[in-house]
## 1
Amino acid sequence: MNAPVLSAEAVTKSYWLGKREIPILKGVDLAVQRGEMVALLGASGAGKSTLLHVLGLLDAPTTGRVLYDGNQVHDLKVTERARLRHQHVGFVFQFYHLIPELTALQNVLLTRMMQCSVAQYWRQRKATRQEAESILGDVGLSSRLLHRPSELSGGERQRVAIARALLQNPRVVLADEPTGNLDSETADGVMDLLFRINRERQLAFLLVTHNEELAKRCHRVVRLRDGVVVN
Amino acid sequence: MFSWVLALRYLQRRWVNVLGTIGVMVAVWSLIVVRGVFSGFIEDIRADVRRSSPDLMVTGLPLQTSFSSIDAALRGDDEVAATAPRLRHYGTFFQRSGGATLQSVELEFSNVDSSFVQLVGIDPQRERDVTSFDDWLARGRKRTARDPADHGAPELGSNLEVPAKLEYFARRRLDLSVPADPEDFRSLWPGLLLGKERTRYQRGLDIGSPLDLLSVDYVARAAGEPVRAITLQRTFAFAGTFQTGARLFDDSMAIVPIEPLRTMLGHDALDEGSIDLCTDVAVRATKGLTIEQLQTLADRLVDRVKQALGTPMPTGCKPEVLTWEQQNAVFLDAVDTERAMTTLVLFAVMLIAAFLIFATLHMMVTQKTKDIGILTALGGSQRGVGQIFTRCGMVIGAFGVVGGVGLGLATLWNLNPINDWLFESIGFELFPRTLFDLPKVPYRIETPWLVGVAAAAFVLTLFVAWVPARMAARMHPVKALSYE
């Protein structure tokens, strides 16, 4: 059997407020298989976002291990973690987090530029552009390629963010309340898009949400309460 | 790659960064222009100072020193090509006015508001061998656009005296006794040369006009008797003007033949027991000696002079041999210090520009905190994130430096037309030429300085960009993403 694309083993995470230790995650075990769509449910302050940051290598666990495809990754050097994050993980945030100075197309292309030199990028610029346009077309934004984030609606911005997460063909997408900032109709549209991508690309998703209805549509639901997985 | 794209995009969308570019540009421009003009001035000043001074000057001699004894000692050195005596004294001048009653008024030179002069007694023949004396006279006679009048300085005799005819008519104008026939008249007054600038606006000072010198000297009639002051008086004829170009020299000196001055000071050549008195000896070294070689020669000559003077040396007497630079050390050092101070002040302008860049980039990092978190989440390395801001600094610096150097060179190349245009348009001169008596504003482009300023400005810009860049690179991605 293949190793999970992403797993956490006895992960804890604490913050220090002066001399007082505040535990956020208290030994989380979690595994996400290829093509699996996992919903991470929990109340505010349960540690969902913290877990997502630890799994995305944006933050280090206090104890425990994070593994990508069965390989321990949390203790790698900063540059290695950045490279791995670029290749293995795609992020989708609640507030889209697009670069306001760039167009939709440039925001997507930016992902490819991250680990490329000018010369490397120049050689593959046409193919990359076609790829980015194709993905933006997939998420229904063919006509909005040259629009800046300020010229796009909330739903469109989130689609750009999804397209940006997909360009590098990641193994897993970590989505932090991707519909939390959208009205229900737009949110449904975005979720439909995520499920379609999951089906078509066999891409693993770890979806942080408060929405029980949405969670039910996922392959599996993981509940987090006070830093502990409860089911 | 992403750091270049984002750096350019951030700069394009933030015009406040143009202020940084303008700041660097102004700093580089001012450093190049001011230094260029200063260097031009200094080059001119050094050339003028050099022209006014002999290679070496023996000075600090005892009061009653005979030139021939020092001359013999100096000529013993192979590197001494020529020598000339100098006799320094001082006094005030009175100008006669004609009319039924002969009157005499203190002559206040218009540009220095004083009648005081330092007299330099020279032997014109020997002086020609050690300095550019003929050139001084030629420059003194030269007409300029601002001073078209021909002063008509005539050829001078060995006593610097003007032709007898000129003196004859000058005497007649003043109702002084003269023979009926000008041909029977023989010159009585030794000539006197004044700096061209000193006499530029002087009225009634014609060639041949008598100038009465009033001076004092201290004498002891016999050994043991107290020293007392005596007044001395001598009439000279204004023989023309000289110009070395060194304003300090030209404005303070009056050149007279050495013999009349010696006579005035009690050493008439015809008197028994008189000496060929001198206070200094000007020396020309053999050609092609560098300033360091001149210094070595000076060190050798001072020993020879001390030997010639014998021991013990009179109290307070300290013979020295000064190179032309040392003779003008105070002035040259002052000019150099002024240049250094100006440069320092202008570097402060560059520091202000650098601070401006730091402030704008720091502000940019704060504004872009969320972007930094996003970029890290997308796989951007710390180095790459930091490079966005160093590249911003690089672009600001490069534009500022290139613009500043270009503008600086263009300004220097067109300095005189700009100065003329300003004067003609609004009556304002950036560099008043009357003040410096220069036909055009001098400038000198020093390539090492140009390259140094450009490199320093660029490195400074990179350094001030590096500080906010480091801050950006060290930002924790989770904190950056949650920054509000």
Note: Chain A is about 35% helix and 25% strand.
## 2
Amino acid sequence: MSEVERHSYDVVVIGAGGAGLRAAIEARTRGLRTAVVCKSLFGKAHTVMAEGGIAASMGNVNSQDGWKVHFRDTMRGGKFLNHWRMAELHAKEAPDRVWELESWGALFDRTADGRISQRNFGGHEYPRLAHVGDRTGLELIRTLQQRIVALQQEDEREFGDPEARLKVFQECTVTRLLTVPDAGSEAGNRIAGAFGYWRESGRFTVFDAPAVVLATGGIGKGFKVTSNSWEYTGDGQALALLAGAPLINMEFVQFHPTGMVWPPSVKGILVTESVRGDGGVLLNSEGKRFMFRYIPDVFKEKYAQTPAEGDRWYTDQENNRRPPELLPRDEVARAINSEVKAGRGSPHGGVFLTVVGRMAGGTEEIRRKLPSMYHQFKELADVDITAEAMEVGPTCHYVMGGIAVDPDTAATPGVLGLYAAGEVAGGMHGSNRLGGNSLSDLLVFGRRAGEHAARYAEEIGEARREAAQEQLDAAEAEALAPFAVESAENPYTVHQELQQTMNDLVGIIRREGEMTEALTRLDELKARAAKAGVEGHRQYNPGWHLALDLRNMLLVCECVARSALERQESRGGHTRDDFPAMSAEWRRVVLACSIVDPDAETLSVRLTRGEAVPMRADLLELFERDELTKYLTDAELPGKDG
Amino acid sequence: MTYKADFRIWRGDTDGGELRDFKVEVNEGEVVLDIIHRLQATQAPDLAVRWNCKAGKCGSCSAEINGRPRLLCMTRMSTFAPDEVVTVTPMRTFPVIRDLVTDVSFNYAKARQVPSFTPPEGLKPGEYRMQQVDVERSQEFRKCIECFLCQNTCHVIRDFEDNKAAFSGPRFLMRIAELDMHPLDVADRQKAAQEEHGLGLCNITKCCTDVCPEHIHITDNALIPMKERVADRKYDPLVWLGNKIRRRGSGD
């Protein structure tokens, strides 16, 4: 192998969205030399697309809010499959993470008394989402980006080098984690760094580091209709699998109820939940607010039974219940799916979502509260949302499953020195994520991952070692393979077929036969992806980049399909046509995916069953026993084992 | 409605390049980025282009379409006649890397020269109190998606490479205005805007405002007020006197 560029750091963060940047800020603030490696330009990560807000129980709008209420809402939203410890930490720490952003320059919308305003959102009992119009993700990413610049300015003053302790390697893709043997971990190894290539030049680069934080986001690009950007190819999940760290809960994929459906080229682009949080309603082709017919038993007592009560709730939350348009996302997505199937859909296969006449301030209020939505529909669909209804339908939005992590430290149990935070990690959101809980998740667990990666890197000190040359050679050979292929497959075609397969066969409603078929097709696609060849040279070559990303998408899609086939119940983001009920027995089951042999020619996924950790007694006490009986087995209910 | 469109796309790298002709299918509702993606999938797999969100939120896919700086994802094909040739070229102000991808590191270097938000000493997180009306001015500027189209179009650097060292461009002059108008920022921004970031070079032709995909009133709401603040201070007799006294006191 030719001489390869090498960089040595204490902590390498892969991914520059909310979780990655927050982790990097934490590691650097603790004095460690930190690198951020990201596929796109700095500041372009998928976090910018988050619209509605950050959930944090600051209680600025309704003082009855607090971490316990937020914790309860999160567990209910996830149908009790969440790792309760993550939900607890998240609910407790989210307010501090939001306030901290303000001290770094974020400008949230305000309440009348000058505090951070909070808005209603699906599944949240009180107005809880700190927001900036409907572009909260942009505010978050820009604030963290500017915080990183501030830290670099500090280093410039102290060392004469702004990148002395914190450097962003942008447009650089990591293709393999590097490890060295270590008997102390489940997979028998620990982190030594990462191997990647510069997108601009195609040249390879090696990061030597004892600690790596994966913060690469989701997997949406495995599906045809998605709100996700091109980067969401399951990189972190695949890197973890290949290094020996398992994924959990991969069957739980969130289909956001409201994506654009027309024109075809924008199908899937997100329509923020704030539209409903601020008064928007869903209508079918008969003009009926159909959501009232879809309130499931577990939520019956919490939601309005009539449109009149639902409407009153916006101004009087003490005496009315919330409208069912604000049910958790999985419920709304399934309801829309049913309406369309029953022939009551909109002309382009969705339903109607309208804010016309739903805000006291009329047109002006709509444009002030939902500026991006106004802009998006006007420019991309010729629809004026202040005068017409939008057409919306479900779109693949978020994966609840992900890398198994320790709730407190974000460390993976599989590989020493490997941490994961944000969407790439699993457990926090259970079977379904509440809107607004993602941005707060990024900050809470991004900070924790950065802290513990830094601590670990400090502890390991001189014992750190570099990866063996064979690993680098193998990584290089793997990355160059698409140039050496004869009788090449077109990587774009393989990708399109993968997306179609997942969309049609492992989508919002699942059946055994279809998922078995999907697994057969995934095997075929795997074989074809191995033959995906590229034209041209290594310099900024998107065909080559996609050919390499295919490995990751195929691996994570197989995890989704295998787990979904195995779980014989319906819960949150996993709906089985053939097993429509939720099962308390299945709630305790955690499905984990790992790779049979990471060095094999063809990679295949192994599924194992684990058991959920029982919830701590003081947290169980936050719920009424009646509610717990809907989710837990008799043996798990408090007071049974005396 | 499906038709075949004529596209001319600049292909090349640092060593030079040329416009290449393509004939490509266009379907109803598509944007220019869809067409670029179709070209990649069918005719030119190695055609380099930056993009991320395809929803006008990330500011990655900046380029020039028929000579006008635009986001590829927000330019609908319906704005062109079916027989019109659509020419796509990289942003002209920044060095080309390959095809439609340019080296925008100039902007990241300038961003690092703007001192960061400086809150009052002793103000703890959670204690911040600001009125909506007071944050709205800066919020407008924080809508910026950093597509750098304003930087690309600003003739101060588009036509005069030599100005790049002394001029931060509309994006970062607006960032300074944003901080200056932040209700709780205590740093002095005005002197640096003029002396270090080249505010004086801007002659308010509003080209930046014209191309802003977020419709931010960069010139009217950021640059002109900033110029006024600088001018007020420069010619304010009290400020002038204060500066004189301070200077004398510090011994220069």
Note: The first helix of chain A runs from residue 18 to 29.
## 3
Amino acid sequence: MITRRYVIRRIIYMAITFFVAITLVFLLPRLAPGNPVLIILLTKYGGIVKPQQLKILESELHISGTLWQQYVSFWISLLHGNFGPSFYYYPQSVSSLIITHIPWTFFLLGTSTIISIVLGVAVGSYSGWKRGYSDSFLQSFSIGLTAVPYFWLALIFQLVFAVLVVINGTHILPVAGAYGYFVTPGFNYQFVISLLKHSILPLATLVITSFPGFALLMRNTVVTVLDEDYVLQAKAKGLSLNTIRKSYVNKNAILPVATSVGLAFAGIVGGAFIVEEVFSYPGIGYLLYNAVTVYDYPLEEGIFLIIVIVTILANFAVDLLYAYLDPRVVLK
Amino acid sequence: MTNVRIDKERMEAVTSSRPTTRFKDFMSKLWKHKKGKAGLIILFGLVIFALIGHFAAPYNPLANNAPAFQPPSHAHLLGTDYIGQDILSWFMVGTGTSLVVGFTIAILSALIGVTVGVIAGYFGGKTDDVLMRAVDVLLVIPGFPLLVILQTFLPPTLETTVLILSILGWPFLARVIRSQTLTLKERQYVLASKLSGLSGMQIIFRDIIPMLIPIITINAIFIAVGGVVAQAGLAFFGLGDLRSVNWGTELYYFFNQDGIAYKAWWWLLPPGIGIIILGLGANFLSNGIFETTKPQKGG
């Protein structure tokens, strides 16, 4: 059950979180030394510039006037969805850059999260139900995998598929980009195949490093649920083991896994960003990596704010979904 | 009078040899626990490895007088990198840096997390509300992008990275400590301390925090590993002090200096295996601590 009071309170918390993030993004560059306008001018125009141009740039970057005036104008443009111009890709705006890149990140994040949950739940449920030898093997295997850092695994995949396993001069799997050079984006067979092939290694990296967490949690809750009286009663009633497992154990054990998705998601975001860097996958993680290397501060700030909004909303959605799945949960 | 006497007894109980015998007790229990023992050995081994690297690495890790991209040989057991630095020496010295980074982050984070958690749990009310909302905000903001944005505008030194990671590392611990404190403060002996006139701070330091040490240690271990990985990830993204010799910068240079094109597997494997060994050791040790210090029911 979800009360209206709960929803309103959550919205207020989300607003506070967002307010903190925006204020941080506003203050940090202003505490750091150096004039951002000069950085743009030096990198882009070799430092030759007219005074009027300087004024226009300053107002576009909200660095004229008192700190308070800057803060207000910063907020006003943010509320208009305007994150200002990018330093490096100037005069392209940060918003337009993010809009063109974010679908790729959504694709990677969404697909890898769903596959990880499904795989984790399946493995964990099997492991907790079977117990014994296969259980302890799967458990140590999962613990071992959680210790593998995703950026290292991504590099291993690069090394193996880019240079070590090359048959007759062709790669088995593509190691960079989101689709091939010679396919035209659109809804055609070649594009979809190329898209899928390019996503295999990035997805594999993310899934291999994030599914064991779900598997371990699922395994532990299955073991706890098996001790419950209603499972004993179901057995006494003579229900088939398959029915017990599906309708009694898995259904109940999956709930704690659902609550963990929200927090795990924040971690998978970081993983996706670094994986995009390694595989030159054109999402906002790759964009952020490029922004870092060329000191494109507005772009970094815009990406940060967008990903904060996405994570907060995803968390909220997961909580609502949880209350919907489990009628015993009362969110008030 | 009685107040004073009880207080004295308590003082004696705390300041006598009890803590050290308790520690010895705990260590011997942990040593008998299979996983706890494995964890201790693995982590101790890593520390020894790092110490050898600090005092007696085969080469200066920054000396580049060997040919570049040499596969492992007798002279260079793990080969050389893009400018002919000895990778084994790099890895040994880097292990030390990464361990110190993780250890420092764990200590600082634990200090903040325990302070916030105990204060929120013990005093409750408005203080609790404000602190826990701050924790919620920090937990929900995705860590890696936040790290990137902070490190961008702060000085690129290893100290800054450690500080940022410590400031971001504590919220989960604070939440755990708060919920533990909530149950502990209802215990009989805490009530007895209250009746005997001890102040809130005295109770916190004598009755509550000592009971929380196992759970603090377990969480601190995971914060340490998380810190090492986060620092490595940040360095890999090109942020922080890239001249520092650690596991993260090793991977950064591998990726950015054509390690892949030269098929330099000997350069890529060590830091990843280092992180995996650290992660496994931490997991075993925390598992051992958890199982040997499980609270007995009714205590």
Note: The interface with chain A takes residues 133, 136-137, 139-146, 148-150, 152-154, 225, 229, 232-233, 236-239, 251, 254-255, 259-261, 263, 265, 268, 271-272, 275-276, 278-280, 283 of chain B (CB under 8 Å).
